[in-house]
Amino acid sequence: MEEKRVGKVVGYFAKIGVAAIEIEEEGLKIGDTIHIKGHTTDLTQQVTSMQIEKQPIQEAKPGDAVGVKVDDRVRRGDTVYKVIE
After folding, report:
1. Alpha-carbon distance values, 53 to 3, 32, 66, 67 (Å)
2. Which residues does 5 contact at the CB level (< 8 Å), separation at least 6?
3. Mean per-residue pLDDT pooled into runs of 10, the chain (85 residues)
């Protein structure tokens, strides 16, 4: 299983369970599997919901800052990878 770096977590909203992710290298779309890794974070999940400025989107490209619904707590500075089957 291969992983490609997508970007990094720049914020986390605990109340709504959303990670703010800065897309830097690899695009991301609904249905992709992501792996978020950090000092105390190790979360793998499918992207089911993604937004830019509260607008739902299907796909994000490098340069975008997106909100992604996450199943668990993530932290600012965590690295986001896309899992390639």
Report:
1. 27, 20, 8, 8
2. 24, 25, 26, 79, 80, 81
3. 96 97 97 98 98 96 98 98 95
CA dihedral (11, 31, 62, 4) in degrees, to 10, reads 90
Environment class of 31 (CB within 10 Å of its CB; exposed 0-12, middle 13-18, buried 19+): exposed
- Cα distances (angstroms) measured from residue 50 to each of 1, 33, 40, 82: 24, 13, 24, 14
2-84 carries CATH number 2.40.30.10: yes
pTM for the predicted model, two decimal places: 0.95
For the chain, which residues make up each domain, given as ranges? 2-84
